[in-house]
Amino acid sequence: MLKSKSPSCGVSGTKTYANRDGTGFLYRGKGIIARRVIQKFPHLPCEDEKKIKDMDIRHHFLTRIFSFFELKREFKNLPSIEKIKAFHRKYRYLLMAYNQYRFKKLERITRNKENRSIQEVKKVYQ
Fold it and tell me: The whole model's pTM is what?
């Protein structure tokens, strides 16, 4: 969670100016650090403290946090393909609700028709 409207950490709606004295408004967007964090970790949940007050946004944010936590915990050691499939089945409907295209992509990865190594399947799935 980042600070809203911060020139460095604002996730959205941050004012950017051409001059240091706050004149020459250019646009609204992400803060410098927020932009870098989102570029480096595009799949991690990222919200600011104002948006998180909205119940739906907070629910979505927390769902993603706990899902990522469980994914990391389950995949900490080298899992078997069965363990990856079990994780995928457990989160099937959640994945479908958020992004059906990515769900289908993950579904193909778990089928492993390319006969990838378990290390590669784990990396691609994560």
Answer: 0.69
